[in-house]
Amino acid sequence: MRQTKVASRYAKGFMSFLESHPNKDAIIAEFADFRNLLSESRELTNFLNSPIIDSRKKQNILSEIFKNKSKEFQNMLNLVVQQGRENNLLGIAYAVEDMHDKEKGVKHAKITSARPLDQDQIENILKKVHEHFPQKITIKYTTEVDPSLVSGFTLRVDELFYDASTKTKFNKIRQNFDSKLYYTKL
Question: SS3 for 106-155, per residue?
């Protein structure tokens, strides 16, 4: 999810507010739940993004939906809606989670393979990732299947990228042939 400057600023302010809060992790977990809900619920997203619905009504409905959440979480939602930035809530939730992960030393990995990987294969890949980083890290990963890779996998960990796919190997061979002229002796 691409985060806007607005989302990053709200998240940064919220994270600094939570700096020494005793329930910081629980409140951030509420944002993760909210992000999941917002990602899955088209109706809630449309409701929040609707210019027709008054911000007071949005605040009241959000307060009712999230009445069991912490006051800090509810106040953040109310502030964002009150400022007319409710279309940035998903980005804010992602930014809060990303900032918290960065504080905790959590790395995000995406493994894309030509076919579904079993848990042993994923653990072997993640073991290699752990060897790459000198400090102890936690890895959150997602997997994706892309048959165009032919075989093998690609791995992205934050800004690092490793490509062990057959597709890339074929492309390198093709480029090698295209860049050199081969003559046959007649």
Answer: EEEEEEEECCCCCHHHHHHHHHHHHHHCCCCCEEEEEEEECHHHCCEEEE
